[in-house]
């Protein structure tokens, strides 16, 4: 049987959230994520709104399926809260699953990233064979490292990239099986 590349579901609900595909109504939320200096502090820095608008419009116009890329929405209001990715690295980079998460500043501190990540990892663990999942974060990004640890990821090594120290963390996917 051919191994799925990543989690195949296009929608995954949880107690408070819905992981879903992007919609036109997410435009302002995406623009905010890319332009907010606090959100972008450890992930490349904020971009000017004028540059980001075109990028976001192109992304929203592209309706081809994007497995492993989710908008984190409020399960009741459908409001955009952030994004979660569970993508597979290219074969040249090892081909492993890699988790990523970005929340709008106003959605920090409520456990939404933890809930979204747990939901996606559980669904992936129920669908895919056991394998390591990677997570890379700047070592200075304490919120992200705390979240990674709470999810059960363990730091394996640090290295320099993009002018900053990065921490590579890993967890076995089977740890999230329900
Ligand atoms: C990394 C990031 C997603 C973490 O967000 P977060 O809200 O701190 O993460 P969590 O979902 O784990 O929430 C934890 C907080 O919610 C609180 N919380 C409230 N209700 C909760 C619940 N039901 N369950 C868990 N935590 C809850 C926790 O006490 C904690 O609060 P604290 O930060 O005051 O200690 C966020 O800071 C972010 O988007 N940063 C910018 C993007 C980025 O750097 N991404 C990482 C790329 S590698």
Element-by-element helix/strand order? EEHHEEEHEHEE
Count of beta strands: 8
Classification by helices and strands: alpha+beta
CATH class bucket of the domain at 12-130: Alpha Beta
Largest sheet: 8 strands, mixed
CATH architecture of the domain at 12-130: 3-Layer(aba) Sandwich
CATH topology of the domain at 12-130: Aminopeptidase
The parts where pLDDT drops under 50 for at least 5 residues are none
Mean pLDDT figure:
96
CATH superfamily of the domain at 12-130: Gcn5-related N-acetyltransferase (GNAT)
Q: Walk across the major sheet and give the strand order.
A: 1-2-3-4-5-6-8-7
Protein name: Protein N-acetyltransferase, RimJ/RimL family
Domain N-acetyltransferase: 17-178
InterPro entries: Acyl_CoA_acyltransferase, GNAT_dom, N-acetyltransferase
Keywords: Transferase
Task: Summarize the entry for a quick read.
The chain has helices at residues 27-35, 49-61, 112-127, 142-151, and strands spanning 12-13, 17-20, 69-74, 80-88, 97-103, 132-138, 154-161, 164-172. The protein is an alpha+beta fold and 178 residues long.
Task: Outline the structure in words.
The chain has a domain of 119 residues: Aminopeptidase (3-Layer(aba) Sandwich), CATH 3.40.630. It is of the alpha+beta class and 178 residues long. The protein is globular. It is built from 4 helices and 8 strands, in the order E-E-H-H-E-E-E-H-E-H-E-E. An 8-stranded mixed sheet has the order 1-2-3-4-5-6-8-7, with helices on both faces. A hairpin with a 2-residue loop joins strand 7 and strand 8. The model has no long low-confidence stretch (mean pLDDT 96). The structure holds coenzyme A. The site of coenzyme A (COA) has 19 residues, from strand 5, helix 3 and helix 4. Coenzyme A binds next to strand 5, helix 3 and helix 4. Keywords: Transferase. It holds the Pfam family Acetyltransf_3. This is Protein N-acetyltransferase, RimJ/RimL family. One of its GO terms (molecular function) is acyltransferase activity, transferring groups other than amino-acyl groups. InterPro entries: Acyl_CoA_acyltransferase, GNAT_dom, N-acetyltransferase.
């Amino acid at each position: 049987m051919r191994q799925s590349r990543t989690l195949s579901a296009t929608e995954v609900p949880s107690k408070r959230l819905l992981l879903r595909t992007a919609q036109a109504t997410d435009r302002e939320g995406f623009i905010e994520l890319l332009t907010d200096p606090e959100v972008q502090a450890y992930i490349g820095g904020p971009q000017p709104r004028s540059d980001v608008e075109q990028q976001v419009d192109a992304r929203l116009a592209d309706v081809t399926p994007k497995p492993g890329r989710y908008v984190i929405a409020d399960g009741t209001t459908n409001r955009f809260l952030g994004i979660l990715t569970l993508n597979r690295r290219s074969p040249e980079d090892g081909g492993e699953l890699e988790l990523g998460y970005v929340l709008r500043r106003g959605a920090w501190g409520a456990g939404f990233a933890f809930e979204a990540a747990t939901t996606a990892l559980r669904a992936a663990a129920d669908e895919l064979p056991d394998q390591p999942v990677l997570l890379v974060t700047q070592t200075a990004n304490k919120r992200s490292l705390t979240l990674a640890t709470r999810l059960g990821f363990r730091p394996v090594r640090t290295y320099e990239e993009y002018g900053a120290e990065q921490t590579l963390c890993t967890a076995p996917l089977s740890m999230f099986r329900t």
